[in-house]
# Entry
Amino acid sequence: MEVGQKRVNMLGEDETELRLGLPGGGGDHVAAKNGTHTAKGSYNGKRGFNETMDLKLKLSSKETAAATVDEGKDLPKERNLLGGSGDSVKPPPAKAQVVGWPPVRSFRRNILAQKSSTGGHEDAAFVKVSMDGAPYLRKVDLKMYKSYQELSDALGNMFSSFTIGTCGSQGMKDFMNESKLMDLLNSSDYVPSYEDKDGDWMHVGDVPWEMFVDSCKRLRIMKGTEAIGLAPRAMEKCKNRS
Amino acid sequence: MSHDPAEMSEDDERAPPADRGRAEYASPHADQVLENVLENVLVFLTCRRDRNSVSLVCKSWCRAEALTRPELFIGNCYAVSPARATERFERVRSVALKGKPRFADFSLLPPDWGAHFAPWVSAMAGAYPGLEKVYLKRMSVTDEDLAVLARSFPRFKELALVCCEGFGTSGLAVVASHCRQLRVLDLIESEVTDDEVDWISCFPDGATSLESLIFDCVECPINFDALEKLVARSSSLKKLRLNIYVCIGQLYRLMIRAPQLTHLGTGSFSPSEIVQQGDQEPDYASAFAACRSLVCLSGFREIIPDYLPAIYPVCANLTSLNFSYANINAEQLRSVISRCHKLQIFWVLDSICDEGLQAVAATCKDLRELRVFPIDAMENNEGPVSDVGFLAIAEGCRKLQSILYFCQQMTNAAVIAMSNNCPDLVVFRLCIIPRYQADRITEEPMDEGFGAIVKNCKKLTRLAVSGLLTDRAFSYIGQYGKLVQTLSVAFNGDSDMGLKYVLEGCSSLQKLEIRDSPFGDSALLSGLHHYYNMRFLWMSSCRVTRRGCREIARQMPGLVVEVFSWNNNAQDRGEENDIVETLYMYRSLARRVDAPKYVEIL
# Structure
């Protein structure tokens, strides 16, 4: 972009950018000024944090740390511009957007992201996730993940960290016990299912990932006993579609 | 829109007198008479700056003031411990607490940093049984905290949660059901979890005292029938701000039951399903016309511009209009704004373009506050608004006091024009979205524009800068910004001199937040004379090192110096010469006991 180019020339040297922002920041800057756009959903650093914010109630630091780490593989690249703890600075992906810039509140940004109709941006795909027996719902942005495995890891983190002992009954306490929960999640006792655009409840994993993201309206982690009826319908639907 | 309590000062955290015995220096009788007289006089003192001055006169005045202060304002919840605050001020009816630093709004604060309401509500439960009002901003509030609040204060009347998180509809349900005298429930830009609890149905049967019910930020469906009945039995209701799940047909039903409303948030402002041609739709305009006292309008979350004419009947009386979620163009705006002669506060999206701003400037001669938000928050070559619209506002709205303006392009000339035309400016926040962006026409830095603002706007107390700025801009700010209390800096400046100018020149500075600017230890250490006068300093992605931060902590024991980064953990703190990712320091009479592992307190 011309103004950007001229500015660099006017100040005489490229080094100026490095003084301020470091290789990462400079790279960001040039990429941004060249008019490249980041698909809103693909910026893992900021979205990762917003994702974590969506997890809302009863977050334990362990859970948020885990969630952040999951989504935050890109975090050091964008945020750690000055190599805070002596790690070498990794240049950010070319289309990265800077965290928290421009200073539009996450709340407003999320709302506008859902409304935005300008071309080239992927809208967020927020769906509610409920787990049978869990006291609270969560919301996830399916566009944050690229595969069923990533989604499964994220869900596992999300529902595994209720603080023990702050809820009422003993039954709830057992449920909140992390290792028990992970056992349940990993066993065949719990089945993740989703409601698709037609209102049918389907077994997660039956269709290709992209098709799933497009058609999923809501997620529910069901008790195995209730999910028995799902599989055959899912198969039929796929057959009908293909 | 967020509302702040009336202007209040910072010094509620001063130490209480060392001894609390009642009559140690004079004869008991004289001292008690003095205090009784004083207490009766001090009741009339409402401004907290005045109260802070009173408390400095002598110990007995301090005590008398502490006993008569009804409103407690804590600008930084970590500046004082709940125990200390409740010990000093015994008869408090209203508490305002602010928690996280503002940059938390932009994802610059890692999660679970703190600002928990829990220790405060538990201390207040014991100390202030007569508590009536709580205002929280950027605090972490859980459902359990709300339950404690609802159960501990039988006279509780007003709850406002601004930019808070950590609670859900379960917590709202407890407040609604237990706070029988509730007048105000204001949820503003807070994150509320959907626990699928029907909190609207939890309000008690029978007439309520509700005057304000604001829940436009609650992104969960609500029970509309229950809401309709609630509105019908709340004859004092003046402020109602609905969420996106209320469609325009439902809005109509509520409005005809509440024509006394002064503040209305319209919810989605579109029908719940596609309306076929020929369908009978209610006369929305007549519902608006019936609300003769309406002065503040917001919402429009999913606006279909065809419905805009419905609000024409109220435009002439509007003093506040929030279109900041309405994606409308200049033409659609013009039809509304041309009728809004009394408008003082206007929030809008940049979808209205420079033409839309020209329409605003042509009509809204009384405008005091303007906020223009970007639909597309990416760095672009061009945007829908620029220095052209900005200049129109400068020329048309001479009474402007507060501006927040996002744009892709700006010129020094336009900013200088505003500095000359709008002498009443108190808040000037200009966000040129592309970082390091120079003047669009001259390609010079934006130093002269911001310099003119601090020089000409003699009432300026809040400033946010952007664009390409050299140290010269900061020398202007230090030289002329004597009243500036809050300064935000991002991707600006050349060297330590920039920050030095500010710290040495801005004698009123209270809140300084800086990101991604080349200021290091030498600049940091130049502010030692001033840090106790400030509420906080935030520096992220700058050049201060652990050594520099430690030196501050060593020299200023009255500051809490927090250092952290996103990937920090207790075992891997880093070397003394390492640059710290985030420095957050603030004056305090307490040490944090709840800091997460990644926060290191030097």
